[in-house]
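STRUCTURE:
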Protein backbone atom coordinates (compact mmCIF):
# COMPACT_ATOMS: atom_id res chain seq x y z
CA UNK A 1 0.00 0.00 0.00
CA UNK A 2 1.36 3.42 -0.91
CA UNK A 3 1.44 6.34 1.47
CA UNK A 4 -1.39 8.82 0.78
CA UNK A 5 -0.03 11.96 -0.85
CA UNK A 6 -1.30 14.12 2.03
CA UNK A 7 0.56 12.07 4.64
CA UNK A 8 3.75 12.33 2.62
CA UNK A 9 3.32 16.11 2.28
CA UNK A 10 2.77 16.50 6.04
CA UNK A 11 5.82 14.36 6.80
CA UNK A 12 7.96 16.42 4.44
CA UNK A 13 6.73 19.74 5.91
CA UNK A 14 7.62 18.58 9.43
CA UNK A 15 11.17 19.71 8.62
CA UNK A 16 11.33 23.52 8.32
CA UNK A 17 14.35 23.15 6.01
CA UNK A 18 11.88 21.97 3.34
CA UNK A 19 9.59 25.00 3.62
CA UNK A 20 9.15 27.38 0.74
CA UNK A 21 10.10 30.82 2.04
CA UNK A 22 9.18 34.05 0.32
CA UNK A 23 10.46 37.58 0.77
CA UNK A 24 8.44 39.81 3.06
CA UNK A 25 7.55 43.29 1.83
CA UNK A 26 10.51 45.52 2.63
CA UNK A 27 8.96 48.95 2.08
CA UNK A 28 6.08 48.34 4.49
CA UNK A 29 6.10 46.45 7.77
CA UNK A 30 3.11 44.17 7.81
CA UNK A 31 1.34 42.36 10.60
CA UNK A 32 0.16 38.86 9.87
CA UNK A 33 -2.72 37.27 11.75
CA UNK A 34 -3.12 33.61 10.92
CA UNK A 35 -5.53 31.16 12.43
CA UNK A 36 -5.47 27.40 12.10
CA UNK A 37 -8.66 25.84 13.50
CA UNK A 38 -7.69 22.21 12.89
CA UNK A 39 -4.64 21.73 15.13
CA UNK A 40 -4.40 18.34 16.80
CA UNK A 41 -1.80 16.57 18.88
CA UNK A 42 -1.84 13.73 21.39
CA UNK A 43 -1.81 14.05 25.16
CA UNK A 44 1.54 12.63 26.35
CA UNK A 45 -0.12 11.12 29.41
CA UNK A 46 -3.24 9.49 27.98
CA UNK A 47 -2.60 9.40 24.24
CA UNK A 48 -6.03 10.99 23.71
CA UNK A 49 -6.26 13.63 21.00
CA UNK A 50 -6.19 17.31 21.90
CA UNK A 51 -7.79 19.84 19.57
CA UNK A 52 -6.98 23.53 19.29
CA UNK A 53 -7.24 26.61 17.18
CA UNK A 54 -3.81 28.16 16.71
CA UNK A 55 -3.72 31.96 16.58
CA UNK A 56 -0.48 33.47 15.26
CA UNK A 57 0.27 37.19 15.22
CA UNK A 58 3.62 38.03 13.68
CA UNK A 59 5.62 40.87 12.24
CA UNK A 60 7.98 39.49 9.59
CA UNK A 61 11.49 40.78 9.10
CA UNK A 62 12.63 39.59 5.68
CA UNK A 63 10.89 36.21 5.16
CA UNK A 64 7.46 34.64 5.29
CA UNK A 65 6.51 30.99 4.87
CA UNK A 66 4.27 29.91 2.04
CA UNK A 67 0.90 29.15 3.66
CA UNK A 68 0.61 25.57 2.44
CA UNK A 69 3.89 24.73 4.17
CA UNK A 70 2.70 26.39 7.39
CA UNK A 71 -0.55 24.41 7.29
CA UNK A 72 1.21 21.11 6.59
CA UNK A 73 3.76 21.75 9.34
CA UNK A 74 1.01 22.43 11.86
CA UNK A 75 -0.65 19.20 10.70
CA UNK A 76 2.59 17.34 11.49
CA UNK A 77 1.77 17.63 15.21
CA UNK A 78 -1.27 15.35 14.72
CA UNK A 79 0.41 12.08 15.69
CA UNK A 80 2.83 13.55 18.24
CA UNK A 81 2.55 13.19 21.98
CA UNK A 82 3.23 16.70 23.23
CA UNK A 83 1.81 18.89 25.99
CA UNK A 84 -0.19 22.02 25.26
CA UNK A 85 2.60 24.17 26.64
CA UNK A 86 5.42 22.50 24.72
CA UNK A 87 3.44 22.58 21.47
CA UNK A 88 2.98 26.33 21.91
CA UNK A 89 6.68 26.84 22.68
CA UNK A 90 7.75 24.75 19.69
CA UNK A 91 5.53 26.72 17.33
CA UNK A 92 6.97 30.00 18.59
CA UNK A 93 10.58 28.79 18.50
CA UNK A 94 10.35 27.20 15.06
CA UNK A 95 8.61 30.14 13.39
CA UNK A 96 10.74 32.75 15.15
CA UNK A 97 14.01 31.01 14.29
CA UNK A 98 13.19 29.83 10.78
CA UNK A 99 11.69 33.13 9.64
CA UNK A 100 13.85 35.50 11.74
CA UNK A 101 10.67 37.29 12.80
CA UNK A 102 10.60 40.72 14.39
CA UNK A 103 7.74 39.66 16.66
CA UNK A 104 5.52 36.66 17.31
CA UNK A 105 2.58 35.94 19.57
CA UNK A 106 0.98 32.49 19.61
CA UNK A 107 -2.21 31.65 21.45
CA UNK A 108 -3.44 28.06 21.46
CA UNK A 109 -7.19 27.85 22.00
CA UNK A 110 -7.64 24.24 23.15
CA UNK A 111 -11.06 22.67 23.41
CA UNK A 112 -12.00 21.77 26.99
CA UNK A 113 -10.98 18.37 28.33
CA UNK A 114 -12.06 17.11 31.71
CA UNK A 115 -14.03 20.33 32.21
CA UNK A 116 -10.82 22.39 31.97
CA UNK A 117 -10.01 24.91 29.25
CA UNK A 118 -6.40 25.79 28.54
CA UNK A 119 -5.08 28.71 26.47
CA UNK A 120 -1.26 28.64 26.46
CA UNK A 121 0.26 31.76 24.97
CA UNK A 122 3.77 32.95 24.28
CA UNK A 123 5.00 36.30 23.03
CA UNK A 124 8.53 36.97 21.79
CA UNK A 125 10.30 40.01 20.31
CA UNK A 126 13.59 40.08 18.50
CA UNK A 127 16.32 42.03 20.39
CA UNK A 128 16.78 44.26 17.32
CA UNK A 129 13.50 45.97 18.32
CA UNK A 130 14.91 47.28 21.61
CA UNK A 131 16.27 50.57 20.26
CA UNK A 132 13.84 51.57 17.53
CA UNK A 133 14.00 55.31 16.91
CA UNK A 134 10.87 57.39 17.41
CA UNK A 135 8.73 57.38 14.30
CA UNK A 136 10.19 54.16 12.91
CA UNK A 137 7.46 52.56 10.73
CA UNK A 138 8.12 49.24 12.46
CA UNK A 139 6.67 50.79 15.64
CA UNK A 140 3.30 51.12 13.90
CA UNK A 141 3.37 47.45 12.88
CA UNK A 142 4.23 46.44 16.44
CA UNK A 143 1.41 48.61 17.82
CA UNK A 144 -1.03 46.93 15.44
CA UNK A 145 0.27 43.51 16.49
CA UNK A 146 -0.31 44.48 20.14
CA UNK A 147 -3.90 45.49 19.32
CA UNK A 148 -4.53 42.11 17.72
CA UNK A 149 -2.98 40.33 20.70
CA UNK A 150 -5.11 42.28 23.16
CA UNK A 151 -8.29 41.55 21.18
CA UNK A 152 -7.48 37.84 21.15
CA UNK A 153 -6.84 37.85 24.88
CA UNK A 154 -10.06 39.74 25.56
CA UNK A 155 -11.97 37.27 23.41
CA UNK A 156 -10.53 34.28 25.29
CA UNK A 157 -11.31 35.77 28.69
CA UNK A 158 -14.81 36.90 27.67
CA UNK A 159 -15.55 33.49 26.17
CA UNK A 160 -15.18 31.73 29.51
CA UNK A 161 -17.25 34.15 31.61
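SEQUENCE:
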Amino acid sequence: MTTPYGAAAVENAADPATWELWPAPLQYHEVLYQTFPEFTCLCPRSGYPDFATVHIVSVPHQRVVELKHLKLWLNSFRGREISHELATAEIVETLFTTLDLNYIFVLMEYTPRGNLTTFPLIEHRHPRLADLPAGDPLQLALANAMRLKERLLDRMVDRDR
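REMARK: The longest strand covers residues 32-42.
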